[in-house]
Amino acid sequence: MRIELEKRAKVSTLFSVLSPFIAFLLTIVFGGIMFALLGKNPVAALYSFFVEPLSEVWSLHELAIKAAPLIMIGVGLSVCFRSNNWNIGAEGQFIMGAIAGSILPVVFYDWQSPLVLPLMMLMGMLGGALFAAIPAFLKAHMNTNEILTSLMLVYVAQLFLDWLVRGPWRNPGGMNFPETRTFAVDAILPEMIASGRTHWGFAFAIIAAVLVWFMMRYTLKGFEISVLGQSERAGRFAGFSSRRMIWFSMLLSGAFAGLAGISEVSGAIQQLRPVISPGYGFTAIIVAFLGRLNPLGIVAAGLVLALTYLGGEAAQLSIGVSEKVTRVFQGLLLFFVLSCDTLIHYRIKLVFERLAATSTEGSR
Amino acid sequence: MQEGGRGSAEGKEGSVPVEGVAANGHLLAVSNLTKLFGSFAACNGIDLQIEQGEIHALLGENGAGKSTLVKMLFGVLAPTAGEILWQGQSVRIANPAAARKLGIGMVFQHFSLFEALTVAENIALSMDANISLAKVAEEASRLSHAYGLPLDPKAHVADLSVGERQRIEIVRALLQNPRLIILDEPTSVLTPQEADRLFETLYKLKAEGRSVLYISHRLEEVQRICDRATVLRHGKVTGACDPKAETPSSLARMMVGSDVAVVTAEGTSAKGQVQLEARHLTVPARTPFAVSLKNICLKVHAGEVLAIAGVAGNGQGELFDALSGEYPIADENAVQIRQRPVGSRNINARRLMGAGFVPEERHGHAAVSALPLSDNLVLARSRSDAKAFLGGGFLKIIRRDAVASATQRISEAMDVRKSGEDPPAGSLSGGNLQKFIVGRELDRQPSVLVVNQPTWGVDAGAASRIRQALVDLAKAGSAVLVISQDLDEIFEVATEIAVISDGRLSDPYPAKELSREKIGLLMGGMYGKTEGTEAAHAH
Description:
- Chain A is mainly alpha-helical.
- Chain A has 15 helices and 2 strands.
- Chain A has helices at about 15-35, 40-50, 55-80, 90-100, 105, 115-140, 145-165, 200-220, 220-230, 230-235, 240-270, 280-290, 295-320, 325-345, 355-364, and strands spanning about 1-5, 345-350.
- Chain A has a two-stranded antiparallel ribbon with strand order 1-2.
- In chain A, helix 2 packs across helix 13 (about 295-320), helix 4 (about 90-100) packs antiparallel against helix 6 (about 115-140) and helix 8 (about 200-220) runs antiparallel to helix 13.
- Chain A is globular and about 70 Å long.
- By secondary structure, chain B is an alpha/beta fold.
- In chain B, a hairpin with a 2-residue loop joins strand 1 and strand 2 (about 40-50).
- In chain B, helix 4 (about 120-125) packs across helix 5 (about 135-145).
- Mean pLDDT of chain B is about 85; it is low at about 1-25 and about 525-539.
- The interface of A and B includes residues 223, 237, 239, 353 and 354 of A.
């Protein structure tokens, strides 16, 4: 017996729309089973994981803070993925953006000016884009696989940040803790609303999502992205260059990841530490797919994934399970999104081989 | 490998009788065979009988259900309903191995060969049992000589012509000692001379008492070699006849269901200036399996249709790439459009100079299947019609209203039948999509049009419409270059004919002065005979 995937003649529009919701539901069901196996009451555990974080104003702000980088990075990645460029290294671009943007507040901490913040944001974007330029160059001109190169560069970025905050950038007045000096007021991304901590990074993410949505929906550039993603040959016929698209999509997603990085550091952490991201760059891949690579869908998906971070923290406190359940939920969600999508396009067929029976019957 | 092990284990108990046919006399009889894909009946109640020792034609247009029918006979598809009788006994053919076991061999239209392996290695891969390579090579070369299919077992497939590759497939089928051999459009890739050689082989097979099911849409060869014919249309049998007793037009009527409009090329237009020219165009092969272009010279004047004949895989695609600018070349002067050098210019620069292009492959080259027709219009014309289709300055916002009305205009002009206002390109039939793709260029009234295989896999009605449009475009004063494998098509549309072979182009000849035999010789390679190239492969 073997299992075959048979392409469906028609793809159901209804289920294409429902797919993320079905995936989310399945994640909750299996998460509940997991909690039950851990000896917890599944209903209470799921409540504290998914509902409690939404019940208070301060935690809604936390949700927005966590969603901001996810949405920002996810939107950039959607352009990459739609054009068939598989940038898996957004985590590294996020870190490099944060480092490049932190040059002003860490190295030139004396300089105080209203220009500091905009410059930091620009340098953050530049840092992320330049770091993404490495796999872009390697793919466009050396024909290397961008999945591997971009992924491996994540570790380079992580270790570079680690070295910086322990070495040259360590806060001289910081009791030898591996941290940079804290940013001056001019270098801190202000809060958006009076009621809580949400900083302008969330607004950047929403603006980015709307801009990319507009580009994909209405402009020739968006058309170029989807044509090259579906058929490079047809793109060439249209006069579009797949090499230029590698550069465009990688630099764009790198810049977005970099902006997310510096916004996070400037708005939420306000200094550099050895670890500045709980894996936003990787989680954003799930966000991009859960949002069907549609920028507006990504906004919703970013909020859902942000909830898994908060839920993990909440669950750790209230029911005493490891915060690693966050990763479990994220993994489950990605798994179910991808399998729902697969089943929408393909039908599973079990093939029982009765070769022997058939051919002897035939010649008897 | 799994399949192989099982096949050999069975060989002992379930051996197929080599001689003798059941009482009713049919080798293979099919009754009421039906295959549904969803609600669509690809085959609808097919009845067919094949006798021992006959060459039986299966005629029909593209999409008539021929391939579906033979895939059921060969165990690739399972029938929805109906019965297959093999030598009078009902059989269920679960997979190709079971079909081979019964004694059915098949040569597919698209070969499944590994280009980097040798002939013998390719054959060994498909064998059911584990036999040594030397033995396979020996047996293959014995068979190939017995049936007049010369093959060098040590040659690498990548070095072989399409005709030679087909021989590998045929030898592979013959090694199974089949009673019935199914050939799917075998001559579509052959020169007339190669086809003649294939027919010799078929006669030999017939003389041995084997049967051949010969699938084709070429009436002339069916009349020439087949004893009986079954005609399919829209998944149903529309006629069973002796093809020798029919006329080509009566066969065509059975196939198409009505008379097909004849393309008229009357009323010669005056030759104008040279609009498209290649000067000593030489392009090295881009990939190991591509063909390099060697010193190609051609001129297409306004008002002229230059047709380039040739067997598939002799540089047609590469020539198209160089002329269209999809792969620009360094030598600026090697390609000239309207007497201006464009060698290094890209496809859109050439479009802006008044050229239009129709590539061979519809899906994924000329069109993106999942995108709607209107998007596929933008695909070819975003640059050349930027004024009409784009707005919003540097934002380049696509003007959907303008694109939609142009899509409508093209669909009406070319009679494109589609479901809904703006369906995905992939939902159109081959003929309708091709009409749209050609219409998309004609709508611009290009002064130069380069078309590769304009009616490949297109139904007869659409084909005649497209050909007529090409002739009319030339009459209106444009220069048209048609690259085609279909000689009938070439003679219908061309004013001049040249032949491409192994990346070299022959001199052009006026269409009226060129015979099919002459074209066949040119196709076979004017730089040395077939024997010569074969000797070169024996290394």
